[in-house]
Amino acid sequence: MESALTILPANQASWDDLIAILGPARCHGKPCYCQRFKIHERNWRLVGDEERADRLRAQTHCSDAQASQTSGLVAYLGDEPVGWCAVEPRPVYENLMLRKWLWVGREDEDENDESVWAVTCFIVRNGYRRRGFTYALALAAVDFARQRGARALEAYSMITHPGKTITWGELHVGSYNIFEEAGFRKISQPSKRRIIMRIDF
Q: Within 13 Å of residue 64, how many CA atoms lie on the same side as its CB?
């Protein structure tokens, strides 16, 4: 019988657990440590691997169960850390906020509204994929954002098609069907493959 999947705020995880999940992951050829949407495009190449890891460690407040803030969720299969989901108030994602496609059809929206949250990244370790963990993390992100006072949660999903490969680096934002099943609705489609999803609380 397979161990149960549990999902915890990242501040309740250890740094070793976070590294087990995020350390091997690559974004544009380098370890991202979930900083791609946070570091301004012009500074991305200037921030080294160690600094990105340090930023993640500070943002998650890992190993501090009493911390009032954290930047994501960690999934465990039994005692084994197997997955990660980044979910925070939308304005913390500085580089995301600069993307023109984010505002298509809603140019008047307040980009500094901290009550709108965003789920921006999923990582599931090799050997644990295709077992529904991303869907479980998406559902947990909805509950987490709601409990932390969000009035809405957004996602920036990619469309997938049966038989067509989409690279893991592109799919880190999550697939459209995952968010649809989790109760999100489509609010815009800024490109052929990207759909912005949202759930209002």
A: 11
